[in-house]
Amino acid sequence: MTNNVRNFVKLGKKIAGAGLNYKSLLAERKLVLPSTPVIFLKPTSSYITEGQSIQVPPNSEVHEEVELGVVIGSRCKKVSEDSALQYVGGYCLALDLTDVVQMKLSRAAGLPWTWGKGFDTACPVSRLLFPEELKCPQDVQLWCRVNGDLRQDCNTADMVFPVSVLISFISHHMTLEPGDLILTGSPAGVGPIAPGDTVQAGLGNILTMTFPVKITD
């Protein structure tokens, strides 16, 4: 395992996210299943880890979205779905925080999602999980609580496009390098968070992470 994988938060070069990738979310929003993955990018400056705080930008409405993160272990370009999991260096639990005010403005104008997805602290993550710690990435429970109230609770089997498909699809459009992170989408139940809240997320009974929410410094 390379140093980039162990220290993906500091050394990874990009974060690629999959939108609308859970059947439960699509059903909740009355949307049709996408025919191909919907991919966006987040800057690595949006990373935070436990001990740091989520900072809500002014004039925003930030929603939590719990996700399985996939950390790339070796360089891959145009890989097949069958071989894709060979390029996984590990996993993590992640929150893909979204400023829905900016997202609505961007979607209405046909613009990229950058401002809605890329603000500082918009990608809280757990420690790296080694592949042997998560032997079945397509069969693990994701959950998220805000102030103790359960918001999201869904199995990764509900993904529209599983991990292998996402890796292959993205690698056909851009080279994935060690330490890069793929956010694999979030299930139904996403909702707003505000300063003073506490967000707790979990990946089955493997790990949990907790982040307080504050106003941007």
From TrEMBL:
It catalyses: oxaloacetate = enol-oxaloacetate. Keywords: Metal-binding. Pfam families: FAA_hydrolase (PF01557). GO terms for molecular function: acetylpyruvate hydrolase activity; metal ion binding; oxaloacetate tautomerase activity. Its EC number is 5.3.2.2. GO terms for cellular component: mitochondrion. SUPFAM superfamilies: FAH (SSF56529). Belongs to the FAH family. PANTHER family: ACYLPYRUVASE (PTHR11820), ACYLPYRUVASE FAHD1, MITOCHONDRIAL (PTHR11820:SF7). This is oxaloacetate tautomerase.
